[in-house]
Amino acid sequence: MMSSLKQPVVHFHGSDAFRPQSSVPSRRFSVLPPLPALNTRRSSSVVSLSKPLFVSKVESFSPLGTLKRSSSTGDAGDNDHVPQKRDLVICKAYEADKSTPIDDSQARSEAARRVKIGVYFATWWALNVIFNIYNKKVLNAYPFPWLTSTLSLAAGSLIMLISWALRIAETPKTDLDFWKALFPVAVAHTIGHVAATVSMSKVAVSFTHIIKSGEPAFSVLVSRFLLGETFPVPVYLSLIPIIGGCALAAVTELNFNMVGFMGAMISNLAFVFRNIFSKRGMKGKSVSGMNYYACLSMMSLLILTPFAIAVEGPQVWALGWQKAVSEIGPQLIWWMAAQSVFYHFYNQVSYMSLDEISPLTFSIGNTMKRISVIVSSIIIFHTPVQPVNALGAAIAVLGTFLYSQAKQ
């Protein structure tokens, strides 16, 4: 026997939310289970009663509760009226200005994601600071930036090959088109990496990073005059403090060196082209950030090795090594291993962060990373800084932050 049942009208609005109003006489059972009284003292409630609520989904809906519904064909079976355990009614709702149901699991996953990004950022900055410290120690004792750059790429490549072989990391699925698209990126990455290392071998770490904070200016100029892209007026205005701050810091630098200054400038230009080539060549490629940087390191190593041998050479390296070991001792080996390993790890974590966040958040994180490197290197190496020089650095970094805001 089939019967019809009139349902009470439920209004979801304001303080009358979930208050049934109907002319139908009350029954001994209700379709929806009674809701607990709203605790207005709880400030953590995710539902605002000042906005209309709409039912988005009702699961396990059973009007009779204790009776099992008949089959979809309408035939009476042996189990039509067998008592069953009362079904649980799950009702999901969403506010008027939202398109997805309110779900505690989503809030928990978003909180976990924020914690994950925070861990990435903290790890990224810490590893970058450690790398710059050991890199400068090595270059002060063993001033061969081409070999130092090569060892950094070699260590990262070896780490990833071992990770793939031991199944610690998933092996990327690549093809010939992938490597063709990666080649110009690797060329630009190699030039930028070597130029930055040459700069740090000639000037203080803080000065190199102050000049490298001017990379956004190169990005806008290259995109405007070579690619024909236009930007909003605030983007162009943000270049004024960047260029002005870098110029003020360079003029007032006590240990200014033209080779170190030009190395940082070339690094800026090379990394701009690296970013441009990455956007063009990596579209549609399903390779994670960690594996993408691993492949980039391997190709850059193949490109850099013959140039490092030609520019410096094994004989020069051997003579310099004997002198450095006699002055520093065996700990030089640890310094070189540390700077090589930490270089790979900090870059790898930065690419992993880029998988999780927007470009704007990444730019802000990169700006904050540069501040941490500048401050820590000044403290550790006791770099003399004049007030005017510090003011120029602060203006340049502030301009970089304003650029990241205006760009988005």
From TrEMBL:
Cellular compartment(s): Plastid, Chloroplast membrane
What membrane topology is annotated for this entry?
A: Multi-pass membrane protein
The Sugar phosphate transporter domain sits at 116-404
> Highest taxon of the source?
Eukaryota
What GO CC terms are in its UniProt record?
membrane
InterPro entries noted in UniProt: EmrE-like (IPR037185), Sugar_P_trans_dom (IPR004853), Tpt_PEP_transl (IPR004696), TPT_transporter (IPR050186)
Task: Give TM regions.
Answer: 117-134, 146-166, 233-252, 258-277, 289-308
Q: Where is it predominantly found?
A: plastid
Name of the molecule in the record: Glucose-6-phosphate/phosphate translocator 1, chloroplastic-like isoform X1
Q: Which organism is it from?
A: Coffea arabica (Arabian coffee)
